[in-house]
Fold this sequence. Notes:
Blueprint: H1 2-16, E1 25-32, H2 36-47, E2 50-58, E3 61-74, E4 77-85, E5 96-103, H3 108-114, E6 133-136, E7 141-145, H4 149-156, H5 159-168, H6 170-173, E8 180-182, H7 184-187, E9 194-200, H8 204-215, E10 222-228, E11 231-240, E12 243-250, H9 258-273, H10 275-286, H11 291-299, H12 304-312, H13 316-328
Parallel strand pairs: 1-4, 5-7, 9-12
Antiparallel strand pairs: 1-5, 2-3, 3-4, 6-7, 8-9, 10-11, 11-12
Helix pairs in contact: 9-12, 9-13, 10-11
Amino acid sequence: DPALKFLNKITLLLKEAAIDIGNWEIDHLCFRTDSLNHYKETKTLFSNRGALLIESEVGGRPISTFKLFEPIVFENYFIDLIEIPAPKANRVSQRGFEHIEVVIDCPFDQIVNSYSEIDFTTKGLSKLLNPELEVDFGDCAIKFHHRSLEHIINIEENLMVTHFLEQTNFLQKFREFTPLITGSCPLGISTEPSLDIILCCSSFENYNKDITNQFSDFPHFKNIRKTQHKLEVQITSFDYNGLKVQLSCSSQDVFSHPTNIEFLTQGRLLKLVGNEFRGLISQLKEEGFANKEAFSKALRLPKPEQDFLAFSNLSDRELFQKSQSLRSKQ
């Protein structure tokens, strides 16, 4: 299998470079094409193995993403997305699998500092929605980011969310607070138009000033301080043209924040357990349960906060087996 051969190759390169991706999620593989005809042929090939999630034009060339009917299982990783870009104009591209992308739960600086001898490619850090850090091995690469490709697709296909982000320029204006989108929208389980963003600040005074200046005139604006996860959190909510927006800011970095850890675990569960489980979560959401309550009820978790934290340390294979065990007892 070309995918397994490629994964073996990049695993050896990571080992030689002493880079450990541990139990982080490999969310997709990228398959390069060398001509428009080859791109079309590759699309046809993968249409027999998966469903086309999206085809869009990026940089003047089409890019398709397929969700496989059966994931690629490699060691303890389950990979269910294949990204297929057409070649850029006037650029020679070698056909075949070219890179993997990994979802991380730590700041990019932590990775750079952990591997000071590695020459990282940092041009992708300028992206607003899903910045990335890359290690280029020549004919293949690994990219680190904080959201899976499927979650980014869900965000970009939600017109109310994209209008909010574009019209307010939110990700740029509040970049110093490291905004990270969580909640139902990227998971694809929304029951109403909503957007949840977590942020980090060293001073609530400066943060509140910026937030109030930007959004206090919108309907149902509220800005309150409360304790969540043993943290002091500033929660701001308002309606933006029918979109319910909630911003949660604390002093803890957003990547290790319990809300983000729960989100990443919920995303992996939806990916691993299958359509029946997704249907159950959607049903519970329709009944009015919030995300954490819906997942906890579906899996009958006795201590959701501790359980989600424990789940985050499991590999894909271990999380799949754990979820199957919990569901078999119901």
